[in-house]
Amino acid sequence: MRSGALGGSFWDGRSRTGLRAGLAVIVVSNLVGAASDVWQDQRGPWSHPLAPDWLLNLGGSPLVAVLLVAGTAAMVQFARKPGQLAAGALPLAAMALLVEADGALNEGPKRHFFAPGLALLGWLAGLAFARLLARHSGRTRAELVAWQEIHAEMGAVAALAGNYVDAVASKLWHVGPGWANDTTLRAVILAHHPLGDGSLAGQYAHTVAGSAVASQVLSIATLFVQGGACLMLLGPRWRLAAGLAVFAFHCNVDLLAGIGYGPARTLLLLFCLPWPQVLPRVLHRWPRAVALFAVAPPLTTPVISRTTLVRAGALALALVGATVLIARSLPIRSYTALHHSYTGDRAGPRAQHPQP
């Protein structure tokens, strides 16, 4: 397999230390935000009626600090050295637990916490897949590290892109093409933006809310921009264009409805902009900073047979399929059905499902 077989990246031929460090900073920031929320939360009548006591008891518990410290330490190790699968898995698990606890204690998960975990999961999945491909290549770990990181980066980008494609699929599946009518966006704006806001953002929001044409055009553009996120996998220029389009979409939603999704925007900038070509020139006075984007030695690509590739791909698909089937068959569906419900809806079933 060629190094560019996955579409290529601005980071090809460069050390990905800067990319790992950027991802680590975003993940740790996300951990701090989730931990802060759970630390300040307490269980109450608005909490999830089916949540187990051990999850609800995390609210205000010292275990929150333990999860934060352990996750942060692991992410430091993740950033320092390439190929750190276990070091990435620990903060991913800690972040998932904190975000789920926050959702159980309140009226559902806060979706702005999702993107960093998704990117980290994609990174680890790409890394694991590359290891599976090259496990019988006969090369040393040091020779395989740079090649594995190409797949890790692509896994993170694929996870982010898949999130937006899934958003389009969800809209079309549950609502249909009528989602892009002239009322959907206007309703969102009126529900989230103060009517008395006289700022430029407020005037812009009120203009869109008052125009059926503008509202429908932006709704249609949303479907195309989110669906076009899959183009991020085709190469650096496609990634730059598609990533900036999704970033602009987030900025527009922030102006119209105050829904920022800051972590997602930061990740798009991290993975889609040509930092290795720009920052070394800007940071030339700081050699340690420039070293994060240093030119990498020639890539040693392992020889992978078609049989190995087919087997690894089949195993990956089987794992994904098994995960989906298990999730659909377990009682977790009844649990997630109460996410984002009204307080009264969530408080009522608690009496019917008393905790042991």
Quaternary assembly: single chain
Helical content stands at 55-70%
Shape verdict: globular
The low-confidence runs, each spanning 5 or more residues with pLDDT under 50, are 1-5, 348-356
User: Measured on Cα atoms, how large is the radius of gyration?
Assistant: 22 Å
Average the pLDDT over all residues and give the rounded result: 86
Assess the beta-strand content as a share of residues.
under 5%
Helix and strand succession? HHHHHHHHHHHHHHHH
Structural classification: mainly alpha
Number of strands: 0
Number of helices, counting only DSSP H or I runs of 4 residues or more: 16
3D architecture notes:
With 356 residues, the protein is mostly helical. The protein has 16 helices and no strands. It is globular and about 65 Å long. Mean pLDDT is 86; it is low at 1-5 and 348-356.
Key features of this structure:
disordered N terminus; mainly alpha; 356 residues; 67% helix; globular; 16 helices; disordered C terminus
Structure at a glance:
The chain is mainly α and 356 residues long. 67% of the residues lie in helices and 0% in strands.
Give the SSE map.
Blueprint: H1 17-40, H2 53-56, H3 63-80, H4 85-105, H5 114-133, H6 141-174, H7 184-192, H8 200-209, H9 212-227, H10 236-257, H11 262-272, H12 275-282, H13 287-290, H14 306-329, H15 332-336, H16 343-352
Helix pairs in contact: 1-3, 1-4, 1-5, 1-11, 3-4, 4-5, 5-6, 6-9, 7-8, 10-11
